[in-house]
Structure formats: structure tokens, C-alpha cells
Amino acid sequence: MKINEYGFVRVAAASPKVKVADCDYNVSEIKSMIDVAEKENVQIVCFPELSITSYTCGDLFFQAALQQKAVEALLELAGFIKKKPSLIAIVGLPLLLKNSLYNVAAVISHEGVLGFVPKTYIPNNNEFYEKRWFAGSRDLNNFFVEINGESIPVSSDGMIFHTPFASFGIEICEDLWMPVPPSSKLAMQGADIIFNLSASNELVGKNAYRKSLVLQQSGRCNAAYVYASAGCGESSTDLVFSGAATIAENATLLAEGKRFSLDNEMIISDIDVVALRGDRLKNSNFIPPQEESVSEIECALEAVSTGKWHRKFNPYPFIPSPEKEDEYLSEVFNIQTAGLAKRLQHTGIKTVTMGISGGLDSTLALLVTTKTFDFLGLPRENIIGITMPGFGTTGRTYNNAVELMKSVGVTVKEIPIVNAVTQHLKDIEQDINLHDITYENAQARERTQILMDYANKINGLVVGTGNLSELALGWATYNGDHMSMYGVNASVPKTLVKTLVRWIADTQMGDQPRKILHDILDTPFSPELLPADKEGKIAQKTEHFIGPYELHDFFLHRMLRYGDSPKRIYFIAQQAFVNQYSPEEILKWLKVFYKRFFAQQFKRSCMPDGPKVGSVNLSPRGDWRMPSDAVVNVWLKELEN
Question: pTM, whole model, 2 decimals?
């Protein structure tokens, strides 16, 4: 598996055992961890601040013997890594430059020592007094230092290292804690990954705050952030170091190391560089200031092949994790409610009509609407729920629709559509036994006409029920269920609809409505536009025709959220749904997704208003603007190669 071909690069944060001022021992531990990293196909590994000497050397940093030994140890590491063309290491050491000592990060690869990045902000408060030994990078100008006959660049204003697969920058410990960390500038100048060599001691509560800084900075910079801190073996004369290590990507925690370990510790993750760059591409403010610049270094780095991933791909990107479920789902529900409330307040309308089918989408829309009416102090009786049985309506969905409306206290109306549709088909000379698209759409449009006309009758508003997944695939009848006066589910995908209804049932409903909701949750997705089978059960199952919604939601998220290419989506989907769908199934439904997504844009171009609830939305007035006659060929051809 060639992860680099699909836009990933493998990184690691390492915290080796150290002995204070014992460079030989420290280098031997660094070497052993580099060997482990190489076996794991790591491409860039970061070690802690001053990892060659250890951080807690104190006034020993002034000793020429230690300074010289640190440089010799660095050259030893550079020689060691010369036969490792697929790996770059970042280590820390004290370096004498122009009569001052600097706390620097050294980048080494099979090409040698590529550059030095000095620490920018030198702490001199509380338990830290580094200014006793070190100067900051702002006291320097860019220049080259001669070491062992080689000229090595030293950067005072930041340095970006460009590999074939990612660009990265470096900051050191305290730099992260500043109001404007150097990494902000580095990210604006093109660094995809920020490495932080740190020696952050432990205090009660400090780890949580430190981790939050890493997560926030990775999100603010649209970058990955790899943090490696000093640990076992550092002096505990006054402080304790735990070897904290964190890898984050765009505010998401990918890996976290074990603290207070007596062994060498390393965490590894695969960074999605393409996704990071996709986010930056859409951010029109992510442009580097012309007056600022950084030094840039080109680095050779070989690709790696691996049979093992060091990250997980969530197959259900719209569904929150269990520990965040209450907060997240409550937020979605509140956004939907607030959107509808504003529309009712603005129009002065106090009544609504809704088509209630006994399916999930209309169920969620009904729950949102009842909450909105409670919020506005309007009687639930002003919600006119209309069930409109047709040729394909089953007893199960009909009973669930009626019982649900009764249980939440809305006004129940039943308006059968069989006679009206039969007459309509006769009027347009359509054979009623021909169960084609005309037969199906005539029912959907009849239902919409009833809802619209009844709303006019009561001076009401039609609340739409269609969800984001159906909009993406065009699984709606144009000028039928496609239309409403406000679509509360417009940016809620099918997988989230199901999760949200289940959460509402389990947390906010009494026994009777909860029982009804759970039966609705267990009902197959269907528009029920074709007659039921001989046993009276649903014969027309949506996912049989268009494919599993969980796959389509995954495709939609990768395409719109990250701008992924078809090949990348196909590749990542195989990892996310391993043992659930075969590669052949994924490819089949991905092609269906693209064909329908392009062909059905005309339905999205005139969709009703509705609130945006997440990062993916298809509103033609907001997040998604696409010509209705765009051609899908480029996307499909990529999947054929």
C-alpha cells in the first residue's frame, strides 16, 4: 500500500530515555528509536528539545566540552541516517553561533544536516530561566554555519522543508505558548506539518491545557501538529518531565503517547496532507503576507509502502462519537429548531402543514417542528400532520404515522391520494398498470399539491422533510417532495437523521412515542410509491436501487469536505469499510454516486431554504454552486484507470 500516492505522509513523535549531559547514551537511544521508526515506515520523526544533551543540563550548557560533544553527536547521527533515504529526523541540541548559544532543532536526512532552526521565544519566568544560557532567534540574521566542512543554513525567520509529499516547519516548546506562535507564519507560508521539539514539565492540570494548545494550533493553522516532549531520565532536581507526545490534524487528535514511562515511547500517525491542502484552498484568507518570508529547503525523501495504517478512517463522518453524542446531537436539533422558529417569526405564520409518512425523514421533521412550536409558545394543534396513503403505503408505515402524530399532540388529517392519482393518470392517458416513473412521480406531486393547497387554506407554511443525502443523489421528485416552504432536514444526511431520531427517542420521549420511533427506525428506507408485496410489506427499498446511504454519506463527506478525487475516495473508503463492503461494491456505488450527483444538480439549484447544521451543505445560495449541466466524465474516467 503506497500511502504517499494517496496524499498521506507518516510521522512520529519520539521521547527517548536520556541521561543528563551524556551525549553518547542519548544518541544511542535516538538511534534505536530511528531504527524502530524506519521499520514502521515512518518518514519524519521528531525528538524532544535538546534531546542530544538532555534539557536539564543547567550551567553545563556553558561548558565547551558539552557544546563540542553535542555537535559531534549530531554528525554521528547524520552519518547513521545516511543509509535511510525514506526517513528524516529532527533532533535538538545547543549550538554556538556568533558568540551566543542557541537552542536549535537540527533536521537530518540521508543528505546530511539540512538546516538549523533556533528557538524563537526563550522563557525566563517561574521554573524556566533559559535566557541564562540561550539567545532567541530574533537576535540572529539568516546565515550559514560551517560544520565539518559543510555550510548549513541557520534561519532566524523560520524555515520550511519541502519533501515530495509534504512541507513542514519547526518551532520549539515555548514558541507554541505565545500569542502568535512561529507556526502560524510557517503555516501561512505553506508548511503542512508543524513539529514541536519540547521539554515541558508536568504540573497538575498542565497536560490538558498543553494538549488543547496543540489541538487549537493545528486547527488554526489547517495543519498537522507533531509534539514531542522530554521524558524519562531528565533531571528531577526541581521538575518532572513525563515524555508527553501528541499528534493532531486540523484540531483532531490522531495519537497521544503514554506519559511517565520508564521506556522509550513513540507515537505514529499518517497525516492526510491532501485534506489539509484542500481546506486551505477553500480558505480565501490563507495567503502569506508579501512582506514576510521564510527560508526554504528542498529535501529528498523516498516513498514508503506499508501494509499497516497508523490512523483510523471514520466510516460515519456525520455521526458523533458516543462521548460527544449528547452535545453534538442537541446542537443539531437546536439549529434546526432555531431555523424554523426564525422563519415562522419573520412571516408571522402560526400554522404549518407536513406530510407524515411513517418514515424517518418526516419523523425528524415532525419532532423538530413540535419543539419549535413549544419554543415559540404556539399550540401543537397548529401543526397539521397529513398522512396521504397511496398505492404503496403499507399498514406498518400508515399506523406509525398516525400513532406518532397522536402521541406528540398534533392535528391529524388523512387524505388518501389513490382516487386523485387514478383520475390524473387517466387524464394524461397513462396506463395505471404501468409502474414507471410517471406512476411514481404522480403520487409524489399529488401529495405536495395537497400540502401546498392546505397550507394556503389555513395561511400556513409547508415544512419540508427531504434530507441532505437525498438531495445529493437527487432521490426526490422534482416539484414533488423536492419542494416545500422551509426544509428543516436540508443539511442533515441520512445517517445523521437516523442517529438523531434514535437519540431523541431515547432521551426526550415517553414510553409510547419511544416505541413508535424505534419501529420507524427499524423500517426499511422507501418512498412507498410502488405496491406492497403479497404479504403487505414494503417492496420498494431505496438502498436496493441507489446503494447504501452509509456509503453515499461517506462519499459526499470526502468529496465536499476535503475535495477528494475519486481515486482517493475509493482508496479511503476501502480502509474505512474494510470487512463491510468489497472493493467491487464500493466502486459500483461510487460510480452511481457521481452519476447521480452530477445529473441531479438541477434539483439542488432551486431547493427551498433550510438551515445549515454541519460542515457539508448543498445549498445553492451558500456552500455549493455548480452548473446544472456539468459533465461527470472526468470523475468516472479516473475510476476506470
Answer: 0.92
